[in-house]
Amino acid sequence: MVMSSGTIMGTLEFVVDDDRCYGCGACIGLCPTNALSMKELLAIVEQELCTYCDHCIPSCPVDALNILGR
Ligand code: SF4
Ligand code: SF4
């Protein structure tokens, strides 16, 4: 499984599971800090912008978004 890394602050890390994400776009517009964007049918996160608010997590139909370290 390939994981693309996002923000790392302390022990937390926002990750997009590259194997699960199919680029549906459901998560992109939900981020209050605009940390999420789409690149070649894959959601990517801007490292400095994620605040671990969890808002985007439930939007993903394939459970590709996760915050590690909790
Ligand atoms: S956890 Fe919050 S800040 Fe981080 S990408 Fe998702 S919606 Fe944006
Ligand atoms: S909601 Fe899930 S499958 Fe859709 S773009 Fe976001 S991470 Fe990828």
How would you explain this protein's 3D organization?
By secondary structure, the protein is mostly beta strands. It has a single domain, classed as Alpha-Beta Plaits (2-Layer Sandwich). It is 0% helix and 33% strand. The protein contains no helices and 5 strands. The protein has a 3-stranded antiparallel sheet, with no helix packed on it. A two-stranded antiparallel ribbon has the order 3-4. The relative contact order is 0.31. One iron/sulfur cluster (SF4) binds next to loops.
Per-chain topology:
Layout: E1 3-9, E2 12-17, E3 36-38, E4 43-45, E5 65-68
Antiparallel strand pairs: 1-2, 2-5, 3-4
Bound molecules: iron/sulfur cluster (SF4) (2 copies).
Helical content, roughly?
under 10%
Rg for CA atoms? 11 Å
Can you count the beta strands? 5
Low-confidence stretches: none
The percent range for strand residues is 25-35%
Count of helix runs: 0
Named CATH topology: Alpha-Beta Plaits
Mean pLDDT, nearest integer?
Answer: 90
The kinds of small molecule bound in this structure are: iron/sulfur cluster
Our count of domains comes out at 1
* Largest sheet geometry: 3 strands, antiparallel
Order of helices and strands: EEEEE
Strand line-up of the largest beta sheet: 1-2-5
CATH architectural grouping:
2-Layer Sandwich
The secondary-structure class comes to mainly beta
**What is the CA–CA distance across the termini?**
20 Å
Q: CATH class, anyone?
A: Alpha Beta
Shape assignment: globular
